[in-house]
Amino acid sequence: MIAAASDIHSPRYLNEFLASLHKLSNLSIDLFLLAGDLTDKGEVKFFDPIYSFLEKFKVISVFGNEDVASKERYKRFFPDVVWLDDEVVEVKVKGKRVAIVGSEGVLERPTLWQASRGVNEEFYRKREKNIEELLCGLDADYKILLTHYLPTYETAYGERKDIYPELGSRLLERISCLPNVAVHGHAHKSKVVFKIVRGVRVYNVAFPANKRVVTFDLDPLLGF
């Protein structure tokens, strides 16, 4: 079983997150995925209590928009987490090869804050191409795309439509090589936290939207 969460914004949702973790204590969790925005304003010290509770799991994480300025500190202080930054990692789960492509993700339109710092649409088009190439290069039993930003608008419902392009992109609708599962965060107000897009099971695991840690099987038919 896979567990996943994002947008904990510790300490904002820390107590609720830890309470949700306690409810998983009798489940067999093979992999724990974090989809970014782990602490408020990238204050790395607030990740410490999360790290302490997750140390018994295999944890793979990407960075959210509030984490990016603190990437190196996260890596230095929490080395047991596998931090993915436009990278791939392969792990074994119950004898199966599971490949995870991890990235902050893609926006259709940079936010005003990003644009003021030189981030443009070309930056995200290049990242999208890189993600597609990484997915196309995978040779594994199961493939997961782990991003902070939404890889489809299908799980944005509940957010303001005019800001969809600043929450994510239609990446899954465009790329040629697809994962089995896509996991993302960022959409705090989403009312649709699960959708199937082009055969890909998409989970919005933002804690404010779910009010819990999300769990799912890679292969529902096999309970794996």
Plain-language structure description:
By secondary structure, the protein is α/β, with parallel strands linked by helices. 23% of the residues lie in helices and 23% in strands. It is built from seven helices and eleven strands. It has helices spanning 14-22, 48-54, 71-77, 112-115, 121-136, 171-174, 207-210; strands at residues 2-5, 31-34, 59-62, 82-84, 87-93, 96-103, 142-147, 181-184, 194-197, 200-204, 214-216. The strands form two sheets. A six-stranded mixed β-sheet has the order 5-6-7-8-10-9, covered by helices on one side. A five-stranded mixed β-sheet has the order 4-3-2-1-11, with no helix packed on it. Helix 6 links the parallel strand 7 (142-147) and strand 8 (181-184). It starts with a strand and ends in an 8-residue tail after the last strand. The relative contact order is 0.18.
Give the SSE map.
Layout: E1 2-5, H1 14-22, E2 31-34, H2 48-54, E3 59-62, H3 71-77, E4 82-84, E5 87-93, E6 96-103, H4 112-115, H5 121-136, E7 142-147, H6 171-174, E8 181-184, E9 194-197, E10 200-204, H7 207-210, E11 214-216
Parallel strand pairs: 1-2, 2-3, 3-4, 6-7, 7-8, 8-10
Antiparallel strand pairs: 1-11, 5-6, 9-10
Short summary:
The protein has 224 residues and is of the alpha/beta class.
How do the helices and strands follow one another from N- to C-terminus? EHEHEHEEEHHEHEEEHE
Number of strands: 11
> Radius of gyration, Cα only, in angstroms?
16 Å
Query: What profile does the largest beta sheet have?
Result: 6 strands, mixed
- What is the arithmetic mean of pLDDT? 94
Largest sheet: spatial strand order: 5-6-7-8-10-9
What percentage of residues falls in helices of 4 or more residues? 10-25%
Query: What fraction of residues sit in β-strands?
Result: 15-25%
- Morphology call: globular
Are there runs of 5+ residues with pLDDT below 50, and where? none
In terms of structural class, how would the helical and strand content be classed? alpha/beta
- How far apart the termini lie comes to 6 Å
How large is the count of helical segments?
7
